[in-house]
Amino acid sequence: MESSGRAAGTEPVSHELLGARIPTIPFPESLTPVPAPISPAPNSSDRLPKADVVVITWTVDEGDALANVLTPGVSRPRWHPYDRDFESHYRPLIRSGAPSLYVKRLASYMPTRIGQKDVLCMKSELHLNQDGIRTGDGTATLPVKDLFVQIIGEAQPDVVLTIGTSGSVYQHFQLGDVIVTRAAKFRCKDEFRNEKFNGETFQSDWPIPLTYLDEAASLMQIVAPNMAEPPMLPPTINYHYHGAKIHADANVPDIKLDGRDVPEFHPILTTDYFEYGTSTNNLEVEGAAVEMGDAVLGLAVDGMPNPPKWAVVRNMSDPQINGGLPNEGYDMNPQTMWAIGYYTGYGYYTSVSGAIATWGIIAGL
After folding, report:
1. What is the pLDDT of residues 147-158, one digit of tens each?
2. Helix or strand or coil: residue 153?
3. Which fold has domain 29-229+249-360?
4. Mean pLDDT, range 342-350, rounded to an integer
5. Where are the alpha helices (DSSP H) in the chain?
6. Kind of pairing, strands 183-186 and 201-203?
7. What is the distance, to the nearest Å, from the Cα of residue 120 to the centroid of all Cα atoms in its chain?
8. Average pLDDT over residues 81-104
9. What are phi and psi of 315, to 5 degrees?
10. Can you spell out the DSSP letters for 184-233?
11. Is the pLDDT reported for residue 217 higher than 70?
12. What is the DSSP letter of 347?
């Protein structure tokens, strides 16, 4: 069992089962990602190889998209497993039923090269809201923080990028848009609500390279047709509605930057529960998008003597949800249903956009 969705426990539609494919991405020849599997294959307990950049993602869809874009020809199941210190250090910190206990590893990884940069692509099996063992009222273990520290200590990267799906909090940030921000804020209301770090914002003050971001945004259009939203009508004809079909505007995925498209260092919002932006909850005032883990990277590097530069690259897998929909009083909350439904249908394709945006950052380093 692996973690498979922005919402814990949700299962995505398998793009493999649906026969989904993305065309070959026409990267510039000198900057086309070239995967570099280690031969002979390393032991799962070996230290990670050194890298200029580490890219970490989290879910099945995100990992598949990252592999398709940055390790073409080497699919995610063929990445090297990584379980260093899993039994001795991590297992006592992980609660029963967590994804990592099923696969018995911390992560999987694959080296690749983009131009002159050695890049380590990683898919974590640890997650903020799926691992913790309660240590008190609103406090819990956080093994994914230790994993960040371990990865940085072994790979010694100059840059760490944490990437994946997120819920849009802006009406004009649509499916496939990608937010790049150098800040992350904890917004916990569940198992970590009383931790000292809750409410803290962390930031990494460095200039995101812009040289290839326009080209990346152009390349992202390769998956735009897969993010077309169907015309909507009420789910059954029992509704008293006789209007025409409603067609959504076409989604043209773009890259949004902190300091340009949102306020400088406008943070990603990291929650320990499934949260999403709506047209009425005003989350855009507090942050750039909402997800479930990135602020842990900021917490992990805080206080390091020579921390790597870092940024968050999050694709909009579910748009801002209509706040006029009811969100209580029903066994099936319509707002949550739609947020999960969007991720389930579009998480893989929007993650391709996010991986291409990640390429754009690395290509400009």
Report:
1. 999 999 999 999
2. helix
3. Rossmann fold (3.40.50)
4. 94
5. 60-70, 99-103, 128-131, 143-155, 213-219, 295-301, 334-363
6. antiparallel
7. 16
8. 97
9. -90, 150
10. EEE---STTTTSTTTT-EEE---PPP-TTHHHHHHHGGGGGGGGPPPPB-
11. yes
12. H
| C-alpha separations of 92 from 86, 137, 139, 272 in Å | 9, 19, 16, 20
Question: Of 27-31, 146-150, 162-166, 323-327, which gets the smallest average pLDDT?
Answer: 323-327
Cα distance between residue 13 and residue 18, in whole Å = 8
Angle between helix 334-363 and helix 60-70 axes, rounded to 10 deg: 30
pLDDT at 98: 96
The phi and psi torsions of 119 (rounded to 5 degrees) equal -120, 135
Can you give the residue ranges of every domain in the chain? 29-229+249-360
Contacts of residue 222, defined as CB under 8 A and 6 or more positions apart, other chains included, come to 22, 23, 25, 352, 356
CA distances (Å), 167 to each of 137, 176, 287, 315, in order?
28, 11, 11, 8
Nearest Cα residue to 221 out of 249, 248, 253: 253
Q: What is the dihedral of CA 295, 296, 301, 307, to 10 degrees?
A: -60
Give residue 237's identity as a one-letter amino acid code: I
